[in-house]
């Protein structure tokens, strides 16, 4: 299988995981799968994966979730840029420390999404908006290991 195809399959898998329905009482605990995958690829391949792909993936999330076009694209671009700037430093951290940084980046995503939704009258203030960030940060070490294995097996450079 070609490495570029495997790369795009990881992104497609993330999009499919975003589309999986969650029970109403557990919706706050849904990780940000697409952002998790794009963050991995920005850290692993910073000169090949960047804000352009983050923008496109954010646009796909907007279309998938039926939100405002560009809402996720904006936050994904900001987060991918921040990650690309600090990728050398991030690579030196332990997985749990990287998970904390991922949690902070996804928290920024959640906060921007909340501001937009609150402005439109679709969201009420609650600290539960940060639970997806916590879940994504907790899943980071395992996601990193899986995606790194995929990258090494299929020689994605």
Structural class label: mainly alpha
Mean pLDDT: 93
Domains (count): 1
Q: What fraction of residues sit in β-strands?
A: under 5%
What distance lies between the first and last C-alpha atoms, to the nearest angstrom?
14 Å
Give the % helix.
over 70%
Largest sheet: none
Q: Give the number of DSSP strands.
A: 0
Total number of helices: 7
- List the helices and strands in order: HHHHHHH
Q: Which of globular, elongated, flat, extended, rod-shaped describes the shape?
A: globular
Question: What's the gyration radius in Å?
Answer: 15 Å
Low-confidence sequence ranges: none
Would you give an account of this structure?
- The protein has helices at about 5-20, 35-45, 50-65, 70-85, 85-90, 95-120, 130-155.
- It has about 160 residues and is an all-alpha fold.
- It has one domain.
- Helix 6 crosses helix 7 (about 130-155).
- The two termini are about 15 Å apart.
- The mean pLDDT is about 95.
- Pfam families: MreD.
């Amino acid at each position: 299988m070609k490495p570029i195809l495997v790369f795009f399959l990881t992104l497609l898998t993330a999009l499919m995981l975003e589309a999986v329905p969650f029970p109403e009482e557990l919706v706050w605990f849904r990780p940000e799968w697409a952002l998790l995958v794009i963050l991995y690829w920005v850290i692993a391949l910073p000169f090949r994966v960047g804000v352009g792909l983050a923008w496109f993936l954010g646009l796909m999330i907007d279309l998938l979730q039926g939100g405002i076009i560009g809402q996720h694209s904006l936050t994904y671009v900001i987060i991918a840029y921040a990650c690309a700037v600090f990728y050398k430093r991030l690579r030196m951290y332990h997985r749990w420390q990287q998970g904390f940084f991922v949690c902070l980046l996804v928290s920024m995503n959640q906060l921007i999404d909340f501001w937009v939704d609150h402005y439109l009258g679709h969201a009420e203030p609650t600290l539960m908006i940060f639970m997806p960030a916590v879940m994504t940060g907790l899943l980071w070490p395992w996601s990193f290991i899986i995606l790194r294995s995929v990258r090494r097996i299929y020689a994605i450079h």
